[in-house]
Every structure is written in C-alpha cells, then in structure tokens.
Amino acid sequence: MAATKSCVLSPNGSYLAVSSPDGRLTIWDTITGSPKQIYTPSSHLSATCTCISWSSIKPEIEGGPKRKRRKSIKLKNNEKENEIIAMGTSNGSILLYSVTKGDLLSKLDCGHDDTVNDLCWHPKEDTLFSCSDDQYIVQWNVRDGKVKCKWKADKNSVTSICISPCGNIIISAGRTIQVWDVQSKVVLKKFTGHASSVNSLQMVSYSNRSIDEDDMSVLESVDGCYFISTAVGDRIVNVWQIQAASQNKSSIVQFTLPDEPTQLSISQKSETEPNIFLSVLTKSGQVYIFDPILNGRSKKPLTHRSTIQVVTEGKQSEMPKPIPIMCTMFYNDPEQRMMLIHGSFIKPVFENVIFSSGDVCLIRDDPSISQISQDKVADKIRKPLTSEEVTLLAPGNMAPTGPSQDTNSNNLKQSKRKSLRTELSLAERINTMEIAQAVPETSTSQQPKTESLAVLLTQGLQSRDKDILRRVFRYNKETLIRNTVRRLPVPLVIPLLQELAVRLNTNPENGQNCVVWTKIALKMHTSYLMTCPDLVHLLSSLYEMINSRTTMSSRLSKLHGKLDLMLTQIMEQTEEKEESDFTQSSALLVYEESSDEMENVIEDGLQSRSDSEGDWEELEESDMEVHQNEMDSDGDEGGGEEEEEENDTSSAEEEDDEVAASDMSD
C-alpha cells in the first residue's frame, strides 16, 4: 500500500513528492528535473512514510473591509506558495510539511494507534481526513493540529478514502465501500466492494442532474455521481454509481487488466459531460488508458484504448529491459498529452507524451547506468599525460626484506622442476626427501607482509599480469586485505574493482575471495568513488552482476523457510508416532520362566511318584507281617480307650434293636 501512495504529483503538476523506503521526502521540480528540497524526519527509520497528500491552504485574512482589495491581491499571490504536504507514518502520526518554508509545520498525534493508510483534504475547508488500520477515520483541524472528530468506520482496516468535489460526502473502503455524510457521520450507502483490500479510490465529479443543496438531501445532491476503485491482487477496475433510489450494491462498469493496478489518474473533459480519460498504472510499470462514457450499466468488461511502456534499447548480447513508470498525470488540453515519470526514486525522469489509440513504446536509456553529466570546469581531477611504454610504480614502503628461501630451497625448486619433466630415480628421491627434511619449513600458511602484497597488487594492476593478480587475490583474510587496499594508490581503485568484476564472472570458484576484496575496496574508498564523473559507466558491469545474482535471494529465502517449516513438522509428527507406538506395544515388565527350571520341577514330581510306587510293589510278605505287628503294638497302647468306645457302640446298637423290635410288634 505504501509503495502506491508514496509518489504523488502536486495538483498543478509542478512538483513531485517522493518518499524513499528509508522515510526521506524529496521534492522534485517537474520542469527542470532536479530536486528542490530534501527533508529527513527525525523518526524516518522507526516511522516510515506510508502515504502522501498535497493541499493548498489559503492564509487567513484579518482587517476591515477598507483593505479588502489589497488583501485579496496578497491572497492570490500567496496561494501557490502556501502548499502543504501531509505525510502519514507507520506509527499513526501525521506530519505537515510546508514546501514554501522547506520545514516541518506541525505533527498531528493522538489520532491513530496504527499505520495511516490514506489521506485526503477537504476542498473548501482547512480540514484533513485520515484512515488507518485501527478501523477509525479521523477529521483533523489543521490550524490548531487537534482532532475535530473521530469515528469507527469498519470492522476491519480502512485502507482508502476520498471526498467529493463539493465536500459533503466522504467514501471509505476496506473490503466493503461505504458512503458517509461528512456532517452527521452517518452511512448513506453501502457497496459490496472487492474480494481484497481496496488500495485506490477516485471520485468523478460528473452528475446527470443539477445540485441545489438547499432543496435536496445530501444523498440526493450526489445522486448520479461515479467513483472508481482498485484492489490489491485484483486485475479488475470497478466503476460505481451513487443512486439514491436504487438498492443495487454491485458495480456498473468493469475494466480488465493483464496485471494488478496500483494507481489511478482521471481527466474530465467537462463536469457536464460523462466522457473521461482514465490511466491505470500496473504493478509491472505499464500504463493502460481507457476512454469510457459513463452513461449507465455495461454488461461486458471494457478493454483499454492504448498502452504506454518504457524500455531500454536492446543489443545483440542482451534483451531490452523494462523501465518502470512511477506516476502519471493528464494535461487539460485538446492535444491529449500526459506527463510520465519513470525510472526510480533516486533519479526520476519527467517526460510529456501524446497518447493515441495504439500502443506506445518509449526507448530510453537505463537511468541506473546513465552517465553523470558534469562540466569540465568543475572537474578538479587532472590526470597526467603519460606514454603507453612507461610503467608507473606507486610509492610504497620499500624496506628491504630478507630472502624468502636459501640455496637449499633453490635446489629443492630445481629438483621439483626436473621432476615435472623426467621421472626421478630412487636415489634422487631419497636425496630430495633428506633435503626437504633438512630445510626449515617456509610457512606457506603464513600471510605475506602487507608492504610486499601492496607492491605486488600495484604492479599486477599496472601491467595487467594475471599470474601476479591470481597470487594476490588468493588471500581472504580481512585484516591483510584492508591494509593492502589502504596502501593501494587511489587511481588504481577503479581498475581493481573492474578486475574483480571480471574475475567474479569468469572464475566463480574464487568468488568468495573476490567478494571480500570488493566489499573492502568499496567501503574504504567511497569518498574517492563519489568524485569520479564516469563512475556509473565504469562500474555498471559490477552493479549489473550483483543485481542479477541477488534477484532470487528473496525467493530462495522464502523457499528455505517453507522447507524448514515442512521438515520440522514432519520430524515432529514422526516423533509423536514413535512415542505412541512405544506406549501401545511395550510392556512395563516381562517375566519368562526358563525351560531348565520347568524340567527340574517335572522330574522331581515324577521321581517322587515312581519311588513310592516302586516301594509299594517290592514289599514282601515278611515286610507286611512286620508292618502289621508294629500296627498291633500301637493299638495295644490305646486299647483301653478303644474297648470303651466299642462297648458304648455295642450298647447303643442293642438299644436300637430293642426299639425296632417293639415297633414291629406294635
């Protein structure tokens, strides 16, 4: 949303206000194409600018009727000079910036608690309306910087607002579109809106009936008026009509586009005629122009009349590149001219174009690689005239250093060179091994001295010796590189960057080292590079290479995040499944009897039984007699008792027999 409302032309088209992504405001003169003012808010990093709206506030007139004519002349002269820009921020505050003074006028606080999405000025009063993600619309009194009225306009975020030319109604939109009475803050009409959030609203002041506010209600006064809306991610532009007697809530006309619209611009031939010109800026940077006649409902979507796009000139080695269009504005003249602003917020290009019924393709230079024009008089850098045969050596620390290798190492080098040509014998190999052990190790891992590396780099850049540069660029220690680049002569900085750019394209395996060298060179010699007149042209290859290699970084990071999330969920589901399987299938305690114990128990039982049976079968008669005598002896000991018991038993039996006999006789 902020990207579509942070580049706005003034009502008369003389200035362009652009807010950069870091929150800085730049005022450009559309005639000269140069920046007029640059303003950096104190909180530009924490509260960036989200929307911009222009206004022209007339100064108050004080004094009696005698000086009325003189004051009116002063008012007419100061009308253009008192232009004010309202900037909504991401923290809910609104900044009022004066183009005349070139400074901040006031800051409007305590109105919103969330991001300000859109702003619009009252056409007749010093009143500003703002909407925000906090679902509220706030009416501000600009003179004293206080909230005049505040009301809740939607259940969701209010993303866009616009006001009628007469100032009696205001239209707000989130996903649904509502028409409000400015005085009573009552909803007069509702429309279905878009499937997504509305990002642009434009009011068409045409009405098919005369307006008399004294005899009509507010809704009847705007009966027949049209307004146009676009939404995020929606490739259809809808046209709505305010009809007091109708209950229809859908749009009456639709315009189809091949891409998502981001900005609208309307030009009316006359307020009494329904013919308009509509330019729609899309996300791809192209402009589509429509010329509908608003005279009722249309059954089919309307197509565009013409298109305008800006591209670079193609070459044999590369295809033409599109240059995005930032903003458009129609001129009120019969020649059908319009202003195009294309390029980037760093250096926008202003151009007037006559749009026809066909497609228009403008071939222009790429502003990112265009040369910076500068007068020769202002150029304070003078290069000495030297012959091509002369080799210049830059001054450096030429302190003598000890020999890096002794005679033994030289012999070792010679032996190694011979080994490359012919195969060494066994004796020569042993001799070489002994020499290598005797020679102290020359630390290849040790970094060379900075003085020697700076001299090597200077000689390599001046003579363009690839072997020397390859030896220098193999080091990637930042401290060593920083000291080497610091000692490098200033005129060799650009050749160094060009050589690094060539190596990044031709030797991607050494790209990591070249990136470290490039980063340190740009960081340490920024002040010198900014003074070079042809810097953009000289380093265009490096810029294009960095831009092409970082194009897919955002998509790759998103893909990496999605894959990481999916793998994390898969791992969590696998762990939960393993835990559930473990709790269902595993037992807390398992006891198993060994087969040996069972066999011993069975054998013991069988053995005891067989022993008793064997004893029973082997008993002889003699043993039976002995056993009977023992039992008799035991019986004699308890004989008295047994005899008494037997006598008692026999007497009882005799009594029973007598009783039975008496019974039978009876």
What is Rg? 50 Å
Secondary structure tally, helices: 17
Mean pLDDT: 75
Percent of residues in β-strands:
15-25%
Q: Please, what is the CATH homologous superfamily of one domain?
A: YVTN repeat-like/Quinoprotein amine dehydrogenase
Brief overview, please?
The chain is an alpha+beta fold and 666 residues long. It is built from 17 helices and 29 strands.
Describe this structure in words.
There is one protein chain. The chain is flat, with a radius of gyration of 50 Å. The chain has 17 helices and 29 strands. Strands 21, 22, 23, 24, 25 and 29 form a six-stranded mixed β-sheet that branches. The model is unreliable at 58-81, 371-379, 394-410, 415-422, 439-445 and 609-619 (pLDDT under 50). Strand 1 (7-9) and strand 2 (15-19) form a beta hairpin. By secondary structure, it is of the alpha+beta class. The longest helix is centred in the C-terminal third of the chain and has 33 residues, at 553-585. Among the domains are: 2-59 and 78-363, 7 Propeller (Methylamine Dehydrogenase, Chain H), CATH 2.130.10.10; 446-559, no CATH class. Helix content is 34%, strand content 24%.
